[in-house]
Amino acid sequence: KLRVSLYSLYTSPLLTLLKEMNECRHYFQCCGGLMYGYIWLGYAYAIIFDFSFLFQNNQVVGVGSGSTIVYAVDRLGKTCDLILHTPARQLILQHGLTLSDLDRHPELDVAIDGADEVDAALTLIKGGGGCLTQEKIVAGCAKHFIVIADYRKDSKALGQQWKKGVPVEVIPMAYVPVSRAIARRFGGEAVLRMAVSKAGPVVTDNSNFILDWKFEHAQNWKEVNTAIKMIPGVVETGLFVGMAERVYFGMEDGSVKTRDPPIN
């Protein structure tokens, strides 16, 4: 029995589950298109397989709310015992897993999440779904942060694949001055994200607004991230710089490609 806290794995039949996942070929809707389920299953489970040495008794593992996480949790739900609080709260409860929180487990051994885009240096854009702040908190509390994504999220430089900009969570009263400050200093345009199924702007789980900064060219993302966070009214950005330890890409043919940070 393998007990993990933020999502706890009881992975006794590791190879059996891997075989079961590889043989699964049904379809499901994700990210606006139909994908083979086994592609997602393969690379999601590859993380567990490759990082099995990380999973010791009484570990705490975080699960984010990226679109790729949904199917991973579906599989993990058959083997999990305890899941720590993350933005994927309803997903965790839906699979009958025990919910915990960062008050009880402030330090995590591993966190796993998806990404909207990943560049060659493992800098991420996250927050397309609106949960960037909570996702960054969970990732920041973990000793190891692992990302899973499909091949369409793989870029040499941010902005090549993801065209919706960098999400920035802001205090509602400050969205106009923050938008102006970002555009004035870094160029491009920071646009208030509007809701699709209701009137008005998107409101985050923290009751804030989101600006999508559509930048014009590549930047020094570490400096940009720090500078934007210093603007009064900014809560957090969707730039995850120097946080991911490894990224797994699910390829179109069902294989898994891994990427580690470049050696400086």
Attribute tags:
single chain; 264 residues; alpha/beta; Rossmann fold; 2 domains; 5-stranded mixed β-sheet; 16 strands; NagB/RpiA_transferase-like
User: Reading side by side through the largest sheet, how are the strands ordered?
Assistant: 3-6-9-15-16
Helix percent band: 25-40%
Number of helices: 7
CATH topology of the largest domain: Rossmann fold
The domain count comes to 2
Strand content: 15-25%
> Which stretches of 5+ consecutive residues score pLDDT under 50?
1-39, 79-83
Please name the CATH architecture of the largest domain.
Answer: 3-Layer(aba) Sandwich
Spatial gap, N to C terminus: 39 Å
Structural class: alpha/beta
CATH class designation of the largest domain: Alpha Beta
Please give the oligomerization state of what you see.
single chain
The main sheet comes to: 5 strands, mixed
Overall mean pLDDT stands at 76
> How would you describe the shape?
globular
What do you see in this structure?
The protein is an alpha/beta fold. The strands form five sheets. The chain has a five-stranded mixed β-sheet. A four-stranded antiparallel β-sheet has the order 11-12-10-13, covered by helices on one side. The chain has a three-stranded antiparallel β-sheet with strand order 7-8-14, covered by helices on one side. The protein has helices at residues 14-23, 37-50, 69-76, 89-94, 132-140, 175-186, 221-229, and strands spanning 27-30, 33-36, 61-63, 82-83, 98-99, 108-113, 117-118, 124-125, 142-150, 166-170, 189-192, 209-214, 234-237, 239-240, 246-250, 256-259. It folds into two domains: 14-153 and 242-259, Rossmann fold (3-Layer(aba) Sandwich); 166-237, 2-Layer Sandwich (Alpha-Beta Plaits). The chain starts with 13 loop residues before the first helix and ends in a 5-residue tail after the last strand. Keywords: Isomerase. It catalyses: aldehydo-D-ribose 5-phosphate = D-ribulose 5-phosphate.
